[in-house]
Amino acid sequence: MLVKQPGKAPHHVWLSNRLESLQGYVGGYIETVTLATDLVVICNEEGRLLKGMKPNCTICGVNFVGPIIMAGIYGDEFADLPLEWDEMKRLFPELWEATV
Questions:
Q1: What is the spatial distance between Cα 97 and Cα 92, in angstroms, rounded to a whole number?
Q2: CA-based, 20 to 30 A from 34: which of 8, 65, 67, 81?
Q3: How far apart are the C-alpha atoms of 83 and 86, rounded to whole Å?
Q4: Prediction pTM value
């Protein structure tokens, strides 16, 4: 999965597909934003409402705050990214541009 903290470059990590693990990374209840049939952004459901969550990036016109996870979808489960890292950089340059 690809993870990105506000102001930092994204990086590739392995995260458990367990709800508790995903909630721990984004800092609360998760919400998914579908980018394609096999690609989602996992973010904090209350991120815009919670004080202190820093702006992160804009993807496909959606502004994200706080840490985000990009993951693939396989059936009803989150999965590995469906794209190679270089393809992710080409398709989502805003992830790398939104770094300090």
A1: 9
A2: 8
A3: 8
A4: 0.91
